[in-house]
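Handout, page 2. Input:
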Amino acid sequence: MPPVRAKPWMALACAAAVLLAACDRGATRRGDGRAVTGEDRFTGSLTVFAAASLTEAFTDVETKLEADNENFDLTYSFGGSGALITQIEQGAPADVVATADETQLDALRDKGWVEQPVTLAGNRLEILVAKGNPKHIAGLADLGRPDVLFVAADGSVPAGKYAMEALRRAGVTVAPKSRELDVKAAAGKVIVGEADATIVYVTDVRAAGARAEGIAIPDAQNVTARYGIAVVARSRHRQAARAFVDYLVRGAGQHMLRRRGFVGAT
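Output:
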């Protein structure tokens, strides 16, 4: 029997299929499932609203992405998650929003302000005390002592809410000297010597470095914060916004978050 020869159109179709599969493997998926090629992932500019506790990790991401993509520019607005949510609802020109409480983003999604949120990372609480720990604070119980000047993030932001939950679990009553607008402001009071202690995230203690010290909170009293991130529905740069979210959730951004002390959300 003579050999069977492939028809020219069959050979071309097979070659095209192989090429398409190879290209698809090297592409990243948009939020809508379509492939995004390497050249168009990060171009133009993005404005990202993010919880204050993400400052260091997101700054790392900015440095990396802008170095690798000369036509890409990131602008951040960091603050308390509650304030960021309010700004989004007032129509602020943001492309992406990341908060320290996933439920806040779920509420925004239900109102049509953002696309489907995804989990970004987890974070844990830690006590931040003045350098040298002059008040010898050993745990949450000490924060209720009358000689300890304690400050807290306001209850309107996740860090403040989580801190109060940790104190409740420990059966501790406190009278904060002040309630700060975000977790970075609370940490700052301790770092500059205006307070003896506060409750912040593990990542904030790490960011404080040698300027202050951290005191661990036992698991039974601790709270895990679940961070969420979403593309703003009114974004004029959805392609880059979706690529940015993907980079943080499934790409190298996760390594940068872990390096700064974030953990997986459970």
